[in-house]
């Protein structure tokens, strides 16, 4: 299972790298089907990183790797420090 996840992440990386970011597989819970990935580079400050994660990465992993139920980001501060 881990090999299939790693291969699929490697296939996704060039698209994310083209936008100045990167993605790394950090873990997989076989019991829940949750994959943990770390987004780095431009992804850290990009407001669309959550959309990329859920609509892109999660959709692809669920389609290509049986047993994947969700993808979660680790090490990514999803809160923005915007003051109004």
UniProtKB/TrEMBL annotation:
Example GO biological process: iron-sulfur cluster assembly
Domain NIF system FeS cluster assembly NifU C-terminal, residue spans: 8-72
Pfam families to which the protein is assigned, alphabetical: NifU
InterPro entries given in the database record: FSCA_dom_sf, NIF_FeS_clus_asmbl_NifU_C
Domain of life: Bacteria
UniProt GO MF annotations: iron ion binding; iron-sulfur cluster binding
Family: Belongs to the NifU family.
Chain's role: May be involved in the formation or repair of [Fe-S] clusters present in iron-sulfur proteins.
PANTHER family: IRON-SULFUR CLUSTER SCAFFOLD PROTEIN NFU-RELATED, NFU1 IRON-SULFUR CLUSTER SCAFFOLD HOMOLOG, MITOCHONDRIAL
Protein name according to UniProt: NifU family protein
């Amino acid at each position: 299972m881990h090999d299939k996840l790693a291969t699929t992440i490697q296939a996704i990386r060039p698209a994310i790298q083209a936008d100045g970011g990167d993605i790394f597989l950090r873990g997989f819970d076989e019991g829940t089907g949750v994959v943990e990935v770390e987004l780095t580079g431009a992804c850290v400050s990009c407001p669309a990183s959550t959309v990329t994660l859920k609509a892109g990465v999660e959709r692809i992993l669920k389609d290509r790797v049986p047993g994947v139920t969700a993808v979660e980001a680790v090490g990514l501060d999803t809160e923005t420090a915007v003051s109004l």
